[in-house]
Amino acid sequence: MTQAVADTIDAFHRGLFHIVQPKGRGHRAGMDAMLLAALVADDRPIKVADLGAGAGAAGLAVASRLPKAEVVLFERSAEMANYARRSIDLPDNAHMAGRISVIEADVTLTAKARNDAGLIDESFDHVIMNPPFNDAGDRRTPDALKAEAHAMTDGLFERWVRTAGAIMIPGGQLSLIARPQSIAEIIDACGKRFGGIEITAIHPREGENAVRILVTAIKGSRARLSLRAPLIMHEEGSHKFSPLVDDFNNGRAAYARL
């Protein structure tokens, strides 16, 4: 007898939306997805692409905070795309479900194949991404679903950023979250496609090394790169989030560009 795959329904933004996620396997969304979503600071009617969306946490967080945003979740894994569809269909998400859709597609496709898969040229105002960030040489997990979501491959940022540049309108914004060691590869991938790169290091506490970087860039911009003031996640001597990070995590504020 085959054991049913267990899953959970998890609340985000203090219960303003919920996500269906696999339990004990696959990638489970959390703080990274919420910080990524906070990078979209745009109250206009916009179209947002979430590349490698998983169960849809970051994309749904954008839709939850921005009532004029239309969000398309792109996910290669059929299993995770199904979780995203189930998330959208939850009764608790009915207030925004009409503005969110899922397309099962490989975001590394190119040219006609990319367009045919639904990644349409110059059709999005914002592209957000949380690419797999574990080095391929790191200890591998026996969980195949989790490995696919976490394991980085050579040239990954180049392929993902290339797609972001293709599907975004001129002047559109790229937003991503990654590990600090990927900074050179990200800058290189932006190349002549994106300028005005802004990078923010995220530190667990004062005096501790950064564990993530937030990156935004504008398609076609010629502005110079900026290193922003760091974000400190926790108040000293505790696990409590700093007020600003807590606002980002719960959809009460956006992290606007300079």
What does the model show?
- The protein has 258 residues and is an alpha/beta fold.
- The chain has a single domain, classed as Rossmann fold (3-Layer(aba) Sandwich), CATH 3.40.50.150.
- Helix content is 26%, strand content 27%.
- The chain contains eight helices and eleven strands.
- Strands 3, 4, 5, 6, 7, 8, 9, 10 and 11 form a nine-stranded mixed sheet that branches. A two-stranded antiparallel ribbon has the order 1-2.
- α1 (31-38) packs across α2 (57-65) and α6 packs parallel to α7.
- The protein is globular, with a radius of gyration of 17 Å.
- The termini are far apart.
Morphology call: globular
Radius of gyration: 17 Å
The arrangement of helices and strands along the chain is EEHEHEHEHEHHEHEEEEH
Q: Estimate the strand proportion.
A: 25-35%
Low-confidence stretches: none
| Biggest sheet layout | 9 strands, mixed
Provide the CATH topology: Rossmann fold
How many structurally independent domains? Answer: 1
CATH architecture: 3-Layer(aba) Sandwich
Q: How many individual β-strands?
A: 11
- Gap from first CA to last CA: 57 Å
- Return the average pLDDT rounded to an integer: 91
CATH superfamily: Vaccinia Virus protein VP39
Helix content: 25-40%
Helix count from the secondary structure assignment: 8
CATH class: Alpha Beta
**Main structural class:** alpha/beta
